[in-house]
Write a structure and sequence with these properties.
This protein is an alpha+beta fold and 375 residues long. The protein has 8 helices and 13 strands. A hairpin with a 6-residue loop joins strand 1 and strand 2. The protein is elongated.
């Protein structure tokens, strides 16, 4: 055991713990970053030599370690670069985990702002008046934003509508507020009862394709923490079916744009049961190397990041949507159902959470659109 080896050979506990983890690991991708550096390994090997007749095994380890260090110098340059390379080879949700945490901390310091959670919740249901289209409700939020120095004008998020082949959607600019404005001068689509503190302010800027909201100046640190929630409902907003031509969109998608250092992205999507037969969602994360400009659908796969998280199915009629990350999420769901007139028993929910999402990026739920009847 690491503790016993540490006591017997008078070695640092962290050193013996790392060596034990390397020996016990069955995954070399996990083991490599734990291999102690040359100085630490020499301390270990010297202690082994001094304790008794271990010259032959120690010599073999030294030879192997020298070959390992030579490989590192030849192929990646140094140990820190090797750790970054191995981080990108991790599997599942742990892919780039170390790099993402480092990036969150570094970007928070550089930009002077951070958020605990970026949330996005979408509801989709067939349109009563236009059966080829879907009604849509969308609620977005940034929770526990903290300024680490005076910051203002920072883009928070925006509501836009687009398709996956660069076309214009039927709706896109007809979002109705889910929550009625508390005062005549309220920001566009704000859900004031979910914001904190109650008087937190943002700057709203309307464009040809939607509306964006920016952070205004405020206190630095935890006492200046703010949460903003915005939500809209649009009838006959997006296509229900894939198009008949090759150039038409074959997928629907909903993405949370990450524009500031954020610990978690939390996405819920609630789908009417009439859409479930062909609904198979997948989680995608796209980097945005050109900042806020829209990604070209023809080339955006070049910027897809190897981040994978499970999508969990939920029942809105039985399951609570509240979590430690979003204690008010059940109230968000209840508010949308009350505003839209939909029956929660007719819906299924899907949830994905990504920790330390890269910035800037889009965390997206994508799903194939079904063919129109008779197509």
């Amino acid at each position: 055991r690491p503790q016993e080896v540490s006591r017997q050979f008078k070695l640092n506990k962290n050193l013996t713990w790392k060596v034990a983890k390397v020996i016990q690991s069955v995954d070399p991708i996990e083991a490599v970053p734990l291999i102690p550096g040359s100085e630490g390994m020499e301390i270990l090997l010297s202690a082994m030599e001094a304790s008794g007749p271990h010259a032959s095994p120690v010599s073999a380890v030294r030879s192997t370690l020298a070959a390992f260090e030579s490989m590192v110098r030849t192929h990646v340059g140094d140990r820190p670069t090797l750790e970054l390379l191995m981080d990108g080879m991790s599997r599942g949700g742990r892919t780039l985990e170390v790099s993402r945490k480092l990036a969150f901390r570094g970007n928070s310091g550089i930009w002077g702002v951070q958020a605990r959670v970026r949330s996005m919740t979408q509801f989709l249901a067939p349109s009563a008046q236009h059966p080829e289209l879907l009604d849509m409700a969308l609620v977005g939020g940034l929770h526990d934003i903290r300024r680490l120095r005076p910051v203002q004008g920072w883009p928070l998020f925006r509501f836009t509508s687009y398709d996956t082949v660069g076309g214009v959607l039927p709706g896109g600019r007809n979002l109705e507020a889910i929550e009625k404005p508390a005062t005549p001068g309220e920001p566009h689509l704000v859900m004031r009862s979910f914001c904190s503190p109650a008087g937190a302010e943002v700057r709203s800027i309307k464009t040809d394709t939607g509306v964006s909201h920016e952070l205004m100046d405020g206190p630095v640190g935890q006492r200046g923490s703010v949460t903003f929630m915005f939500g809209g409902l649009e009838r006959a907003a997006v296509p229900r079916y894939s198009g008949p031509t090759q150039s038409a969109s074959e997928h629907g998608e909903m993405g949370a744009l990450v524009t500031m250092p954020t610990e978690f992205v939390h996405i819920d999507i609630l789908i009417h049961r009439d859409l479930l037969n062909s609904f198979t969602p997948e989680l995608l994360v796209y980097g945005r190397p050109f900042g806020g400009t829209e990604l070209d659908p023809a080339t955006r796969e070049n910027y897809r990041l190897p981040i994978d998280e499970p999508i969990i199915r939920m029942d809105p009629a039985r399951d609570s949507f509240a979590t430690d990350l979003l204690p008010d999420q059940q109230r968000v769901v209840d508010t949308v159902f009350a505003r839209s007139g939909w029956d929660r028993r007719d819906f299924a929910g899907f949830r994905a959470v990504v920790s330390y999402p890269p910035m800037p990026s889009t965390v997206m739920i994508r799903y194939a659109l079904s063919r129109a009847p008779g197509a």
